[in-house]
Amino acid sequence: MTTQKKIETIRAVKFTLFSISAGIIQAIVFALLTELAPLPYWPRYLTALIASILWNFTLNRQFTFKAANDIPTAMMKVAAFYLVFTPVTTVGGNYLVETVGWNEYLVTGISMILNFLTEYLYDRFFVFGKEIDTKENRE
Fold this sequence. Notes:
Blueprint: H1 3-36, H2 41-64, H3 71-100, H4 104-127, H5 135-138
Helix pairs in contact: 1-2, 1-4, 2-3, 3-4
């Protein structure tokens, strides 16, 4: 395995581990809201998703991609991703739960897996692409 492949493998593993921690946060927030708050699916999902996004962005920027790029710019790029992802999964998830009758935890899990896969590629190549591993060089 080449050095670059090893670096990318480690980067993917880090992203996976941080995403798992973000997924745990999302699952806990969603479960608490589901069990304790008489809310429809979409506000429970949306609140949990936002908590997960903030956690995941912070850790992955700092430790996975080691990017020194401008934080507001990187956050705006991530926000652009979620301007598409969030309505699709919120409206689609709400439809599957409230209209079709799917299990809310199953729908949330599917959304989390889609988020993991698409966000890694988006972050890796668009948000942090040119700034990967620049943090260490600027310190």
